Amino acid sequence: MIRCDVDGDVWRITIDRPDKAGALSREMLVELAEISERATTAKAVIYGGTGSVFSAGADFEQARAGLATDPVWERLSGAIAALPGFTIAALNGTVAGGAFGMVLACDIRVAVAKAKFFYPVMKLGFLPQPSDPARLASLIGPARAKMILMAGQKIDAAEALNWGLIDRIVPDDALSDHVEQLSGDAVNADHTHIHGIKQLIPDG
Known about the structure:
The protein is of the alpha/beta class.
């Protein structure tokens, strides 16, 4: 349910569970974390999904059994944030709950117009993963972060772009090509140059 396709210096990591809206089990999260921890030689790492939803967050049954607060979420987002290559979230659809972590940890986020964004931790009675609120606030500001985390607001792609949560909206059929074009300069650069630029840009 997790695919990793390596094409030279580009790693494409895909959540492939469209029948369950990309819901993430603990096994899938561990696999995503392990792949991300190995992707240190990649110049570009692209995270995507299949179907109409990027990820609905935690698998419902496992969330009720404790997955919602499992440290594996933080392991995954930390691994992505630590990657020296250029990381892109290619969002084929909605992002919900814990799936925010991996998306927020990427360098940029590109989404299709139908995508929506919500993180219903207040309603569900869970705390967000430790690094997610700070990363969210660094992108959209503290008040808007509270709109999502505390007021439970579902944000559409247009509003997400206006807020700075995502960086570009593209047509569904252009997402893959657009992300490939965005990663082109990094793929043609030296590894140390990519990492050097990332280190010069503050997170927020």
